């Protein structure tokens, strides 16, 4: 007997406007539990805005968002509880690391657990040390962000997001501010998360990651999804002319 499992992330007719400017055009998509979805496309396509709408960092103009069973109709007033329930299920990692510069790596991972989850200091520190070890930074627990490389800071940011036990992880071009060699450290952690079954939505310009690690590819342009499906199939034989043009342009640069 088949078991019906709801998508981990579901968007239905999600639209985002800034005045008369339409940034997202009634986007509908499903990301299944355990799936790694890569969002690619030219600058200004709406990829980052879409990601920020998923956890309501940007409030959509219209549409319905569901994350791990929490359903938000964005056209009505969202209660504080609904917002907290949604965000408790979502971890997010940005281009910029957004670490507290006056706190050690350990305290950067401890503090959100205490404030959001109500964990006591000992419990939060134990979990933080586990996660810093998980991302290869056990020896950096007492270092301040300024004494860490960009790749190390981004891995601390990933540990901080994981510390809140999210059901899904959103990554907004996590390697774009890093040198290519340093970015590989971050991509390695993301690959390991994917192998462990973490549901992930990743806005990325790393085409190798999109092709080889993701199992669902979403190509965006002008605020719309122009093509989506199996990454290998789209990279090998893209159907939409704009996908062909975009891939040709980015792959010719590599």
Task: Tell me the distance between the termini.
Answer: 47 Å
Mean pLDDT across residues: 93
Number of helices: 9
Q: Rough shape?
A: globular
Sheet-strand content, in percent, reads: 15-25%
Structural class: alpha/beta
Count of distinct strands: 10
pLDDT under 50 segments (min length 5)? none
Q: Which sequence of strands runs across the widest sheet?
A: 6-7-8-3-9-10
Radius of gyration: 18 Å
Q: Secondary-structure element sequence?
A: EEEHEEHEHHHEHEHEEHH
Largest sheet: 6 strands, mixed
What percentage of residues falls in helices of 4 or more residues?
Answer: 25-40%
Overall description:
The protein is α/β, with parallel strands linked by helices and 254 residues long. The protein contains 9 helices and 10 strands. β9 (216-221) and β10 (224-229) form a beta hairpin. α3 runs parallel beside α5 (150-162), α4 (121-134) packs across α5 (150-162) and α5 (150-162) packs parallel to α6 (180-195). The mean pLDDT is 93.
Offer a few descriptive terms:
alpha/beta, 254 residues, 4-stranded antiparallel β-sheet
Topology:
Layout: E1 9-18, E2 21-31, E3 36-40, H1 47-54, E4 62-67, E5 70-73, H2 80-87, E6 90-93, H3 105-117, H4 121-134, H5 150-162, E7 168-172, H6 180-195, E8 199-203, H7 207-212, E9 216-221, E10 224-229, H8 231-236, H9 241-253
Parallel strand pairs: 3-8, 3-9, 6-7, 7-8
Antiparallel strand pairs: 1-2, 1-4, 4-5, 9-10
């Amino acid at each position: 007997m088949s078991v019906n499992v709801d998508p981990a992330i579901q968007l239905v007719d999600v639209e985002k406007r800034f005045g008369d400017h339409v940034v997202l055009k009634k986007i509908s998509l499903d990301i299944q539990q355990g799936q790694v979805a890569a969002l690619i496309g030219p600058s200004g396509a709406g990829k980052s805005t879409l990601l920020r709408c998923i956890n309501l960092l940007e409030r959509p103009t219209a549409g319905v968002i569901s994350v791990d069973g929490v359903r938000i109709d964005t056209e009505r007033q969202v209660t504080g509880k609904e917002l907290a329930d949604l965000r408790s299920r979502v971890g997010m990692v940005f281009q910029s690391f957004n670490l507290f510069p006056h706190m050690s790596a350990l305290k950067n991972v401890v503090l959100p657990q205490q404030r959001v989850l109500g964990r006591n200091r000992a419990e939060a520190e134990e979990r933080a040390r586990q996660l810093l070890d998980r991302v290869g930074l056990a020896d950096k627990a007492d270092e301040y962000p300024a004494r860490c490389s960009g790749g190390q800071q981004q891995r601390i940011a990933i540990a901080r997001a994981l510390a809140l036990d999210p059901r899904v992880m959103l990554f907004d071009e996590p390697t774009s501010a890093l040198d290519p060699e340093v970015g590989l450290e971050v991509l390695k952690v993301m690959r390991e998360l994917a192998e462990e079954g973490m549901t992930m939505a990743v806005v990325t310009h790393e085409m190798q990651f999109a092709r080889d690690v993701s199992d669902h590819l979403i190509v965006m342009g002008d605020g719309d999804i122009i093509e989506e499906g199996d990454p290998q199939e789209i990279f090998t034989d893209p159907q939409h002319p704009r996908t062909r043009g975009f891939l040709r342009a980015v792959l010719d640069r590599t």
